[in-house]
Design brief:
The protein has 8 helices and 2 strands; from the N terminus they run ααααααββαα. By secondary structure, the protein is mainly alpha-helical. The protein has a domain of 106 residues: ProQ/FinO domain (Fertility Inhibition Protein O, Chain: A, Domain 1, Orthogonal Bundle), CATH 1.10.1710. Helix 2 crosses helix 5.
Length: 168
Amino acid sequence: MGFEQLAELRDRLRAEKEQAKSDSSKHPKRKSSPQAKPRDYDPAVEAIWRLQKHFPQAFPVNPAPKVPLKEGVLKDAEQHLELLGLTIEQLKLGIATWCRGTRYWACMVENATRLDLSGQPAGTVTAAQALHAKRQASKQRGQDRRKREKLKPTTPATDVSASDQATV
């Protein structure tokens, strides 16, 4: 494409953008009706989002790997309830949910450094804790596998028994 063609394309796109902008000002966006279904509110997700916002070292955003948290991190976080804008129940739910998943169990390896809310070292993962996390992850994988098998559509059997073959 030559410069003239690019300039022409630029001008045409600008004109279309201006046209769309003037059309939208004439027809404002429709507000949602009160009968519209609201988005589901998950207090655990809200709590985790707030923890990630205020304590990014201890609660890293995916795809960054999770880190083992200090034992007693809930008590430390309780001191920041006002800053977080959460109730104690929401905080407990958020931290419990955070520490329950396979990403968290994967980070729980023996001698891994545990972090406090500010990201500073605060202990290590013991062999017993690492073993517990490994068992939890294995148990979760088994449950997930069973769920997937239940959801698989069953296909009709294609085997024809010997008695059926004789009648054919």
